[in-house]
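Shipment paperwork, digital attachment
Item: protein structure file
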Amino acid sequence: MTSATALYDVPGPRARRRHRLYGLLSTLVILALAGWILYLLFDTRQFTSTKWSPFAYEGIQELLLKGLGNTLKAFAYASVLSLALGAVLATGRLSDHRVLRWLATLVVEFFRAMPVLVMIFFIFVALKVQPLPALVAGLTLYNGSVLAEVFRTGVHAVARGQGEAAYALGMRKTQVMTYVLVPQAVRAMLPAIISQLVVALKDTSLGFLITYEEFLHAGKLIASNLDYDLPFIPVVLVVSPIYIGMCMLLSWFATWVARRERRDPRIRAVDVAPAEQGTVLPGRE
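Attachment content:
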């Protein structure tokens, strides 16, 4: 006898058979699609030794490793500067001074609305900045403005009574933010911060458009080589998993942090001393 819940009825035998049929059909469709893609790859001779031979050469491997190193370098610079810019802009948006708050809001809204590629091209072409600083500056302006909103929202997510209690104790606003609100807000902000850093990592691939020698730029040089019969698909099959792996690693870290931070320290188990016989209260003898 099946029982019902408040949201749905527990599926019976016929519904379970129907669900298994749907799952089987979906699996067959996915396998058929994968088989069709493999057929197209073999039919267009994407797995010939000529197209895959570049990856056996030490020079090609060094080119890919150099590009990967440049990608990680741009990401490291952009992530650190984005966090710093986000903190500064969030401080401005939380300021009690109206002019400073409006100025910070204008900067945040402008760079959030501006496409990243447009900013990178403007800095690279109009301001004549070198590729690496242009890429890092564009990523910093965009991701820093987004992180500013993450920081501001995280501070506002803290229970209002926390700040009021701190002010009642005579703390100044700087002390309230530093010792009360921000430490609690970090628990809520950290997963969103790491998720935004994943976006910054993926956007480093825009550097190849301004001739920055990052990972995708190295792959483009290999894919456009006529000596290896234009190995575009092999390059995609090599470069894409590495990008996906780095992003999945950061995403996994964000998930781990979110799961860990859900454990509220206020409800964690603590050791309690066993009850002992104490003084008998008056009237209870």
